[in-house]
Specification:
The structure is a homodimer of 392-residue chains. Chain A has 18 helices and twelve strands. The radius of gyration of chain A is 25 Å and the shape is elongated. The mean pLDDT of chain A is 96. Chain A folds into two domains: 261 residues, Rossmann fold, CATH 3.40.50; 81 residues, formyl-coa transferase, domain 3 (2-Layer Sandwich). Strand 6 of chain A pairs antiparallel with strand 12 of chain B, so a sheet runs across the interface.
């Protein structure tokens, strides 16, 4: 697998960090998830758990091992030091400064393993006026400007439903770690990678940011209408709504041809995208008349055939039952030895020769204590002593 | 830099592909953007262009070189073959099959460069019933189930404002390419990486998917209220709204302490998150009474100080003027030799030792023709001949 032989010490919990290390694990890295004994990652207790195991936790933590160890104790820190000496990567999503307080700041890490790649997932970055603030997805969605452009015109700012800043930040962290590992191959040097919830959100502002940079004008909330292209959006078929996205003049012409509206191409108010954008209501009305004559399934068939992107809003059940989603295996079933069936999200990155796979179920809390500690060279007596002291 | 020495042939245009190769370029890879002579990437003509150069294009294409060459001509294909033989990575966002038709299918690429990493950015994946369909961000947002959970209860499904499926798919592509390059370091083998707009959206469905997997129940649209945690969301301060995100019982207790509402901890209907979730309106009402007594700035100060994530919705101007955003340099100014000032988005991934930087302005169309072709060993006469034939 892609990351075979890479060992990751994962000090993260909740969403952003576990999402980052999920990618590393899915690609074959050995991820050792460090958890607090008796408590563990709080996501173990979040979301629905029909068999006594959280499905939410399962997606983020498949393919990982769990070592439950108390990092407030000296013995726990000692085990972590030993682990880090064998590792390629360490990831944390503590607030800035916590790693230092624990005795694992950048300089200490360098002493333990000079070429270690260390990754910080933060709310606001390692430094700056808000670096010490706590954060959470909702705050990053609000403060990045994202919510201000999201939602319908005339309605309040709207967040995205998933914890998107956590997820983006986890993806960036995984990307940054891999980039640093590639640099290590070439230079032999370690590196420190940092991402933040807020910068991750800011980074996806795309044209909404660049148009503001160019003009100083604030972007509007345009709901389901595209802010650059028209026609585009939801249209009313005979039995419900279809989503149309003719992305350029060529595809617009194909749409008109299929609808029998070729004559609109000559109309001065629709000559180019800029004019159609200004006269959005009129062009949408012309299109809706035709779209309304036939059902959704008809339009999905004939428009895609003609090269016009067309689909419909699927609910979550329909999305996962959809033949394409199934073909792409975006829902996977894992058999957990203690908890039976657990369904998790599939792999968004497909490798033709050496694909991602689930090779290990999500771990029970501390389920790999003995294995990991034995590999580290601890004797049975030493492990029993840690247990007796409540360190593991 | 992280990806120094990596050469990327970039056949992509619009958003998903250029976003992918932007990360590679920002980390030091040499990205040669292949464009159609006289036309170029359509994004060159999109978005605001106060100095005759699109700011939208500039963000996605800084640090890249541009080779304008007609790939429908045999001479153009010959140049591409020569380029690929010198490359580590090739990226395309054509529809599946187009690379084969052009003579650059997987097997042909292997012949040219056995250890090449080839990446496909697609609408629906390389295969499956919809593989041949055209797609676009809006369609992926609709078909992934994302829109069905986004937006307010009782209101229609809502897309996210930025082209988020394009952006996610570009991020995954960059991640997959780096993973394949790490595998190549170990095995000497090439690889084929594929991402899709739809799978990328599906992959961020997080608890919305896993709770559905666990229960078979469709998730509701909950607008700005979190679907798992309460209290959480927008509250009414004396001079406007503040966003509060107390993520767990400990932080909830801190919030109550700051608000002088400690007595609520004993109230049976608010004893745990599950109960507070059921009695969301009541707990929100209690909190709003207190929050309404003071202005936004007060709450941001005292709540963050106490460890309760708190912020407000910033518009795009406020977000980029914010001292933390500025500290993190999320808006960068590039001086383009022909077009003057171009402002672009900054780097979401920070490397402490060897940071991303802008070392090359976004290219003019074909601006690197002579340089790239000369490096390939073409003589001035050969280059002139290509020019005379309209190949470049």
């Amino acid at each position: 697998m892609q990351l075979q032989g890479i060992r990751v010490i994962d000090l993260t919990r909740i969403v952003s960090g576990p999402f980052c290390t999920m990618f590393l694990a899915d690609m074959g890295a050995e991820v050792i998830k460090i958890e607090t004994p008796g408590k563990g990652d709080p996501v173990r207790k979040q979301g629905e758990s029909p068999n006594g195991f959280s499905y939410y936790f399962a997606t983020f933590n498949r393919n990982k091992r769990s070592l439950a160890i108390d990092l407030r104790s000296e013995e726990g820190k000692d085990v972590l030091r030993k682990l880090l000496a064998t590792a390629d990567v360490v990831v944390n999503n503590f607030r800035p400064g916590v790693m230092e307080t624990m005795g694992f700041g950048r300089e200490a890490l360098r002493q333990i393993k000079p070429d270690l790649v260390s990754c910080n997932l933060t709310g606001f970055g390692l430094d700056g006026p808000y670096a010490e603030r706590p954060s959470f997805d909702f705050i990053a969605q609000a403060m990045s400007g994202f919510m201000s452009v999201n939602g319908d015109e005339g309605e309040p700012p709207m967040r995205a439903a998933p914890p998107i800043s956590d997820l983006l930040s986890g993806m960036y962290a995984a990307m940054g770690i891999m980039a640093a590992l590639l640099r290590r191959e070439r230079t032999g040097q370690g590196e420190e990678v940092t991402t933040s919830l807020t910068d991750s959100m800011t980074s996806v502002m795309s044209f909404l940011a660049s148009n503001y940079f160019a003009t100083g004008k604030l972007p509007a909330r345009t709901g389901n209408d595209n802010a650059l292209v028209s026609p585009y959006g939801m249209f009313e078929a005979a039995d419900g709504q279809v989503a149309l996205a003719p992305s350029n003049d060529g595809v617009y012409a194909k749409l008109l041809a299929v609808l029998g509206l070729d004559h609109l191409r000559e109309r001065p108010e629709f000559l180019n995208n800029k004019l159609r954008f200004q006269n959005r209501k009129q062009i949408n009305a012309e299109i809706n008349v035709k779209i309304g004559e036939k059902p959704i399934a008809h339009w999905i068939e004939v428009l895609n055939q003609a090269g016009v992107p067309c689909g419909r809003v699927l609910n979550v059940q329909e999305a996962f039952d959809d033949p394409q989603t199934q073909h792409q295996q975006m829902r996977l079933t894992i058999q957990h030895p203690d908890h039976g069936r657990l369904d998790v999200l599939g792999f968004p990155i497909k490798f033709t020769d050496d694909p991602c796979k689930v090779y290990r179920p999500p771990p029970n809390l501390g389920g790999d204590n003995i294995g990991v500690l034995t590999e580290l060279g601890l004797t049975n007596e030493a492990i029993d002593a840690l247990k007796a002291k409540g360190v593991i």
